[in-house]
Design goal:
This protein is an alpha/beta fold. Helix content is 46%, strand content 15%. The chain has a 7-stranded parallel beta sheet, with helices on both faces. α1 crosses α9 and α3 runs parallel beside α4.
């Protein structure tokens, strides 16, 4: 999975899955552009880890739901590493809060959709002019996009389901240009996402129902991302790949 000399952008790249992806791509030789929004300390820690391991990276602050911030991200990428982008990982997103349809208003619903879907659209649209044959986009969707998610994740699951459809459609559109677009659909992964939004007893129950009898790790997601970003998977596009320990099959 050699990515030596490739330029890779990772949105939401400084915590949990995003950080693991940034570190793994750098380990494979990529020059990594690590996007973050609020936590500069995490961003600098991720940058330091990459550089301490001999990798090359920059960090760029920006809200991926805002076109001007996305354009700034691309500008910093070009300034640092040139006018070709080989890999885009759309990891920015989140649940925000667990709310039933009765509890949410239009503003909340739109916020969650923008965070997860619009961000993916904006980054892809901005990056594609700098991509050529052999380039790869990997979107981070969710098992929730397949099965509707747990209680209170209606808006999140809807957005992630849309990301999955967006992935298929964009793969058809840019495939003739030699660009691949895939997505991952993680299940229960041991991250601060679930520390925040999922009760411990629920996590234990889900892990017990999983054939592998455990939660996944951020590193396991990052391993698959690196594979999809590389030429090792050059005939895979438009796929939404389950990575959930066998809990659910597509």
């Amino acid at each position: 999975m050699n990515l030596e000399g490739k330029v890779a952008i990772v949105t939401g790249g400084t915590r949990d899955i995003g950080k693991a992806i940034s570190l793994r791509l750098a380990k494979e030789g990529a020059k990594v552009v690590v996007n973050y929004l609020n936590n500069e300390r995490n961003a600098r820690s991720t940058l330091d880890e990459i550089k301490n391991r001999g990798g090359s990276a920059i960090i760029v602050k920006g809200d991926m739901t805002q076109k001007q911030d996305v354009d700034k991200l691309i500008g910093h990428t070009i300034e640092a590493f040139g006018e070709t982008v080989h890999v885009l990982i759309n990891n920015a997103g989140g649940l925000v809060a667990r709310k039933t349809i009765a509890e949410m208003d239009e503003t909340f619903f739109n916020e969650v959709v923008r965070l997860n879907l619009n961000s993916t659209f904006l980054t892809c649209k901005a990056v594609l002019p700098y991509m050529g044959p052999g380039a790869a986009i990997v979107n981070i969707a969710s098992q929730a996009g397949r099965d509707g998610g747990g209680k209170g994740s209606l808006a999140y699951a809807t957005a992630k389901g849309a990301v999955m459809t967006f992935t298929r459609s964009l793969a058809k559109e840019v495939g003739p240009n030699g660009i691949r677009v895939n997505a991952l659909c993680p299940g229960m992964i041991a991250t601060t996402f679930h520390d925040t939004f999922t009760k411990e007893e629920v996590r234990t129950k889900v892990a017990g129902m999983t054939p592998l009898r455990r939660q996944g790790t951020s590193e396991e997601i990052a391993n698959m991302v690196a594979c999809l970003a590389s030429s090792e998977t050059s005939f895979i596009t438009g796929a939404n790949i389950d990575i959930n320990g066998g809990l659910a099959f597509s």
